[in-house]
């Protein structure tokens, strides 16, 4: 039995202090009101507890003072300078307007513009012990002055990595989109939680609109029929896919869990994001029930190995549950054969999920959406606008063609939040279908971007970064010492080695690859300590460390692509 089924339905006449009953003769008028005096008497500690009495008296005075100063919460709170260091109400009183404006000005000047200027450093690097000495991390009994807080703000910007810098090409996110930035600032100011229509009416309808359009772009039937949710990262979105797949196959698992059930098996690429395995472990499947499917020479899942492993599971008496395909793998940027995977899912009755967290942005482009051909057949999709579309973090979505599965799978009908006798249509209370309670309005920054640029603007953004990726790839091919890992990358990930002059005449043996393996880490160290750029590297199975450039910042130009190659070459000259 679900936990919520153990509790009676909450009606508006009930009180948590005294249940309303029409049969006992009681009514609400007979319930003694808990006045301020009664509450004070009931709460006052005994004289013997002098410590508690003093603490209580101090707290009462503080709250009384705050209430008097509040003056109907009209932003006219007055406090002495001494008061500011000991107690400040969490409210934007008029006296803080100057401080807020000054801080915002500092952020705009130092983080938004100076921090993203090509002439600035991407990072001012310090080792942990040194950084602890340079920055005041200490928390104290007394609050700091506003001048000190502004200094800390500036120092926070100074010692942080400028991920909006054009030369930050280190991860699958970068850039500072001005519209997304303003959108995120607004939602932080409004501080909504998107779970009921009554507390987030605008954002509830906005989510409905944006998710519907994203499903339409994916190609779900009937113009994008289905459901979806904004969630905190692609990893959680992939977890929603596992949860929904489990519920569709075994609805009783919502109540009984996985106990005494046939083992459920998840299949995914050996190059898939680690979140598929992590969320499977988190949800009780166990890592052994996540089968890694071999990839081919360009990083795509081998369908022959997928079908072979599905057959092995059936022979063992296990239940193939789902396939998590990838549209844009993290390292090589490979797109799995979604149409072929769909056929196997249909044949063996498996849920088909597509992790398009990275590559989903290509759907916005008529020129590049063919990379995700077959995604319209999926049961669910992860798509992160904060990646290829460059919205501010975090902005992640889970989309499904099944209209009711999220609510059926996750609802518990908590009566303190999702009352069914509200005065409005409670179908707009979306919170019961997701696993969080409080949830940020991540939709607004993306909606605001989309309104500003239009679908055509987002398409132009995607095509610009693909064009820069193609230019960079061509430059790598023609430049001495640079070698591609994949001759023809599919996405805007370009993986390559740089072979310094001292290694070029060596025989390609174990010693050569051991020495090549050390090049990327040393170059990375040099660029970070110099602050000139940030690009990541990694090994892959038997391959030695190689660089991975990832592009999603559409401010980059061909001259920047040449700069990246020049800087790597310069830093590696003496290796």
Automatic annotation (TrEMBL):
Subunit structure: Homodimer.
Keywords: Decarboxylase, Lyase, Pyridoxal phosphate
InterPro entries, alphabetized: PyrdxlP-dep_de-COase, PyrdxlP-dep_Trfase, PyrdxlP-dep_Trfase_major
Biological process terms in GO annotation: carboxylic acid metabolic process
GO molecular function: carboxy-lyase activity; pyridoxal phosphate binding
Pfam families with a match to the protein in the record: Pyridoxal_deC
Entry's family note: Belongs to the group II decarboxylase family.
Modified residues (N6-(pyridoxal phosphate)lysine): 387
A GO term from the CC aspect: cytoplasm
Protein name, UniProt field: Cysteine sulfinic acid decarboxylase
Necessary cofactors: pyridoxal 5'-phosphate
Species of the source: Drosophila mauritiana (Fruit fly)
